[in-house]
Amino acid sequence: VTVSTCVICSSGLCAVAHSQIRTYHYVETPMTWNEAWQYCRTTYTDLADVNNAGMQEILLDLAGNNTEAWIGLYRDQQNWQWSSGEEVTSYNWKSTYFCAQVNDEGTWEDTLCMNLNYFMCSTETSQGSRTYTLIKQSQTWATARDQCRQQHADLVTISSPSENQAVKATAQGSNFWIGLFNDPWEWDDGGNSSLRLWNSIEPNNLNRNQLCVAMEPAQWRDYYCSEMYTFFCCDGVSFPLVFQSTLMSWSQAQSHCRSLNKDLVTIYSQQENQQLQKLPGYVSGLSWIGMYHGKENWQWVSGKRASYANWKTQLSCATIGPDGYWTDVSCHELHPFMCYS
């Protein structure tokens, strides 16, 4: 029987889901996501899934003003999914990244980058012309980009109406990913490198205030700019790199580099990223680089937009915070969690 109101239960709160009453339970014992999932499966039914605003409010009331708590959302190698097997129909991330697709009419639409789509790769010939290849495999935007790059190509960039018509004709009525996305990070030297080496759980902008980037050791995380780490300086003309082992905040590191007529390093390629770890005196650990979050975008200290990243790849799971927003974090972190029965 469908019930239009919540029912208060002795062990938690109840809610309606698919014409059944669900009871939600807040467990204060911190566990990893896998431990929480096993506990819920053994003691109740599963970790809580949140597919509408009503369920979200119930979980927030149940947890009160406590810390972040696990929910049943996790990401495998490609997609986010609920541990219960329910379809993921809505998201409430602290920051949502959108990517662009071209529809069958040739117009562009923004959609979640984790959605599945065909995609189009482009390569430039020795004569300077471009070739387009439609890949009829449904992939997330990031996976599509990586597959294109494995073939020494990239997701298609469209610079004119004639190019738009050309890729539309190649697609023959299919929707597909293009290389446009709303990455808000920039390099402080103004570089336009599109490389991204983020850890897969980054950038998560914890507490909405992690606005600077550090390497750990070859992939990137966003951190509070006041934290103290080693850093790299580079000369913008001849590009010699210097590793500084003195611990400084991001702002202190930037000032120090500039006092030497250098700047915090901007990274344009995977090769440059690897080169940093071979510098004399390099010590493995977190080190500041020249990427930071401005008013709207991530950028390099030179003022150029960031176009390269290298976030670390690992399994991610979702927490819900007191503000109701979700954060993707490492599944190995310890948090309270929500079960339902």
Automatic annotation (TrEMBL):
The upper taxonomy is:
Eukaryota, Metazoa, Chordata, Craniata, Vertebrata
- List each coiled-coil range: none
Question: Where does the record locate the signal sequence feature?
Answer: none
Name the InterPro entries for this protein.
C-type_lectin-like, C-type_lectin-like/link_sf, CTDL_fold
> Where does the C-type lectin domain start and stop, copy by copy?
19-122, 127-234, 243-340
Pfam families associated with the record: Lectin_C (PF00059)
- Can you name this protein? C-type lectin domain-containing protein
